[in-house]
Amino acid sequence: MLNKKFSAILVDDAPLIRAELKLLLGEYPEIEVIGEASSVDEAIVLLESQKPDVIFLDIQLKGETGFDLLEKTDITFKVIFVTAYDQYAIRAFEINALDYLLKPIKKERLSDAVKKLTPQETEFLGPKETVTYDDVIYLMIHSSFKFIKIKLVKCIIAAGKYSYIYYGDRKNKDLVSKTLLEWENILPSKYFVRIHRSTIINFEHVEKVVKRKNYTHEVYVSGIEAPFIISRRFASKLKRLLCL
């Protein structure tokens, strides 16, 4: 069975970058570059006439940005950002970008991005089986891969098809391309429990659980001021774990 061929356009105001990217993409028979644009206006014309499957999109474009382009079109396509700026990574993933490549383009990262065009390759890059509490997993954060210790994850908050990880050893949070359901499938249930459709907590980081009216509970996690509300659907499981 032949692989699907994906039509692509390249949007970058630097001709040399477009030429380099086109050359690199020439190594992938599943990618067909059908057009190039150097500005938002040129890209919109191409999008409307060609309706590509994917665009490789720079962020800074002659007084406008790649985000401006996405706001000006209703055409559906996948987006792979190719940029020299790493500070826009979180915003890119929040709008469901498929990947975020930094210039100069590395062949191995481009290969990872192309693989994500195939549905079975769009899942989170990490272990497929349940991990243990002492394990370390390897995942993409801010356009690069990093090691994360499972025991240091204190809670995970849903963000559409993505999720935010909060850590026990620092205040910052990270956005990763993984749903809560995917997290549930790999995290050790002895420590991690879903207390709401949008929240998973590591109960070793729970400071207290306060009972409220109507049989509801509030969970206070260390380092996070606002409590989490346990939905009734998940209350019984947390009670068993915490011996409430």
Characterise the protein shown here.
The protein has 244 residues and is α/β, with parallel strands linked by helices. The chain folds into 2 domains: 6-119, Rossmann fold, CATH 3.40.50.2300; 136-242, Beta Barrel (OB fold (Dihydrolipoamide Acetyltransferase, E2P)), CATH 2.40.50.1020. It is built from 7 helices and 17 strands. The protein has helices at 15-25, 40-50, 66-71, 89-94, 107-115, 180-186, 232-242; strands at 6-11, 31-37, 54-57, 60-61, 64-65, 78-83, 99-102, 136-141, 144-149, 153-159, 162-167, 173-176, 192-196, 199-202, 206-211, 217-221, 228-230. The protein has a 5-stranded parallel β-sheet with strand order 2-1-3-6-7, sandwiched between helices. A 5-stranded antiparallel β-sheet has the order 12-11-10-14-13. A 3-stranded antiparallel β-sheet has the order 15-16-17. β6 (78-83), α4 and β7 form a beta-alpha-beta unit. It is elongated, with a radius of gyration of 21 Å. The protein starts with 5 loop residues before the first strand and ends with a helix.
Distance between the termini: 55 Å
Assembly state? single chain
H/E series, N to C?
Answer: EHEHEEEHEHEHEEEEEHEEEEEH
Shape, per Cα inertia axes: elongated
Which structural class is indicated by helix and strand composition?
A: alpha/beta
* Overall pLDDT score: 83
Number of extended strands: 17
Across the major sheet, the strand order is: 2-1-3-6-7
CATH topology of the largest domain: Rossmann fold
Which ranges are low-confidence, i.e. pLDDT below 50, for 5 or more consecutive residues?
120-129
